[in-house]
Amino acid sequence: MFAVILSLWSFAAGINPHDTIPDYLAHYNIPVEEHWITTDDGYILNAFRLSRPGAPVILAQHGILCSSWFMLVNEPSLSPGIQLYNQGYDVWLTNSRGNTYSTNHSTLDPYWNRKYWNFSWSDMGRFDVPANIRYILDQTGKKDLTFVGWSQGTSQFFVSMTDASVKSYVEEKVNLFVALAPVTWMAHQKSPLFKLLVGLHVDQLWETVFPVGFLTYNNTPTVAQTLCNLTAGLVCDVTVDLVAGTSKLDQWKAITNLTAHFPAGVSMKAIAHYGQLIRDGKFRDYDYGTTRNKKEYGQKTPPNFDVSKIKIPTALFVGEKDDMGDVQDTQTLHNHIKTFLHTDQVVFSKVYEEFSHMTFFLGTEDAFQAWYPDLQNLLNTYNPLPSTVAV
After folding, report:
1. Tens of pLDDT along 354-379?
2. One-letter-per-residue 3-state SS of the chain
3. Which of 54, 21, 17 is nearest to 35 (CA)?
């Protein structure tokens, strides 16, 4: 395992903490627009557009503790965001509420009001996803787009496809869901960080007494020290491999680039929600306890996210060595999708040998060539480029 500790931020190769996405991509003559998107519940989200007006649209949503940098940190020839743009797509890199780029709200101050942090990735699925899609399609004039999610980005989109409040909208507006390292059921996950947090019940304790941001840009040193104390010295450095694991296919330079803008923060409630999935072995909404569940959901237990009802073509890209999105758990997901009337919206499913949770954007040339052509083939079918697009 690599030990990419936070102190390495200042030594990031190629990408540094002070770099901005527009300035970085200017080196490759890629025009970047910065956009601000307000959700129905008041969160103000940041998005970067690798602008190619008129082209088919791809929305790329990052995973837990990451940001829109995730599609850009590898060598340009191996960075999916850059390659999708070069291929001819209008690429939008969105940022989830509470991360470095999306710590804004129309009424709540994230630094002084704990109510700001009262959200999980299920709320991202209900509010962030439809807000991003609506805004992007309005800006581009397109009728639909492809949603590419990684890790937590997949969790929230599975919520979008199953929640009654947004389900019909996303079905109409998304032509393909690409799930990179999907995270839903987590009975077999092996993330060292989550195993420690859940095993010691640190996630539940923290959410109860400190329900704010977790490893945000401004509180990472404090949180790291608190973790060190709560785990009796077991977790003192927050590393890439500690969170999601790495493999021999992941490039050191790309990992180091990632650390320049990692961790980018998330709510503690989102962490606790994943802890809940690990404990109860179900993919369902946040569990507030019997009394509040009855108030929030009208029942004693949180409702399951019924993935058997999804109607959007879905592609599952699975890493054989994925610590968070374990192969067995992904098979459980696929089995649940297939249970409704014997239909199966999974149009592609493949396990990539030796891939970690992060190899899809940190991998070697061989790794990139193992998976990216599969993405291209899917896009050619569900969101093809017009022959007139110049690349």
Report:
1. 999 999 999 999 999 999 999 999 99
2. CCCCCHHHHHHCCCCCCCCCHHHHHHCCCCCEEEEEEECCCCEEEEEEEECCCCCCEEEEECCCCCCHHHHCCCCHHHCHHHHHHHHCCEEEEECCCCCCCCCEECCCCCCCCHHHHCCCHHHHHHHHHHHHHHHHHHHHCCCCEEEEEECHHHHHHHHHCCCCCCHHHHHHHEEEEEEECCCCCCCCCCCHHHHHHHHCCHHHHHHHHCCCEECCCCCHHHHHHHHHHHCCCCCCCCCHHHHHCCCCCECHHHHHHHHCCCCCCEEHHHHHHHHHHHHHCCCECCCCCHHHHHHHHCCCCCCECCHHHCCCCEEEEEECCCCCCCHHHHHHHHHHHCCCCCCCCEEEEEEECCCCCCHHHHECHHHHHHHHHHHHHHHHHHCCCCCCCCC
3. 21
As a whole number of angstroms, the distance between CA 150 and CA 170 comes to 17
Q: Is pTM beyond 0.85 here? A: yes
- For 27-71, write each residue's pLDDT tens digit: 999 999 999 999 999 999 999 999 999 999 999 999 988 999 999
Amino acid at 248: K
CATH fold group of domain 6-382: Rossmann fold (3.40.50)
Burial bucket for residue 210 (CB in 10 Å: 0-12, 13-18, 19+): middle
Cβ 203 vs Cβ 272: under 8 Å: yes
Write down the residue that tokens 């704990």 correspond to: 114
Count of residues making up the chain = 391
